[in-house]
Design goal:
The structure holds 2 protein chains of 2 kinds. Chain A is mainly beta. Chain A has no helices and 11 strands. By secondary structure, chain B is mainly beta. The chains are: A mainly beta, B mainly beta. The interface between A and B is medium-sized, with 23 and 21 residues.
Chain lengths: 113, 108
């Protein structure tokens, strides 16, 4: 079992470009969560998805951010027109059901220059 | 009020010491509780779930007090390798809420 796979590990984007972050959950896990961690801060919930459905996106900024978890393939977190304040570590986690503990991926560190 | 609150520390303790962290949560409807460990610039990893009856895993003991809405983690006989940030996590509805973490450094 390969665990939660995130790629890329590091991503550098210029202001105004798009960032696409990918997450493949653990085998058998249909619940995916995205979190953001700013330097020296805690993890902040962004969005919770199940296959083809967004369950809770209350932590997502209203503009420029979107997430999907298609029937086939990884979950994608997409950030359009990135700004310097988007620089952070983005962690994906998966679980087999709503109340089980998460398993996290290694994260994608986004740097906007 | 934050969903989950932790003392950020830092806690600096000598090897072999016993150290305890507490965490409070605001929503009495919270359903499940966990402690995670995060090493610098790495992903959080599940340390242990927390049950109402209390549970132990080696040198680690977790307790839940629903009446007072707090969770604790006790580490006995601290090792250098225990140095990390410990995150309290509370599941409420669809979301898992993370505390900002308590930093522990174990000193030789």
């Amino acid at each position: 079992n390969a665990g939660v796979m995130q790629n890329p590990r590091h991503l550098v984007r210029r202001r105004g470009q798009e960032a696409r972050l990918r997450c493949s959950p653990m085998k058998g896990h249909s619940h995916v969560y995205w979190y953001r961690q700013l330097p020296e801060e805690g993890l902040k919930f962004m969005v919770y998805l199940q296959k083809e459905n967004i369950i809770d996106e209350s932590g997502m900024p209203k503009e420029r951010f979107s997430a999907e978890f298609p029937k086939e393939g990884p979950s994608i977190l997409r950030i359009q027109q990135v700004v310097r304040g988007d620089s952070a570590a983005y962690f994906c986690a998966s679980s087999p059901d709503r109340t089980a503990g998460y398993t996290f991926g290694s994260g994608t560190r986004l740097t906007v220059v | 009020r934050k969903e989950v609150e932790q003392d950020p520390g830092p806690f600096n303790v000598p090897e072999g010491a016993t150290v305890a962290f507490n965490c409070t949560y605001s929503n009495s409807a919270s359903q499940s509780f966990f402690w995670y460990r995060q090493d610098c610039r790495k992903e959080p990893k599940l340390l242990m779930s927390v049950y109402s009856s209390g549970n132990e895993d080696g040198r680690f003991t977790a307790q839940l007090n629903r009446a007072s809405q707090y969770i604790s983690l006790l580490i006995r006989d601290s090792k250098l390798s225990d140095s990390a940030t410990y995150l309290c996590v509370v599941n409420t509805g669809n979301q898992f809420y993370f505390g900002t973490g308590t930093s522990l450094t174990v000193i030789p």
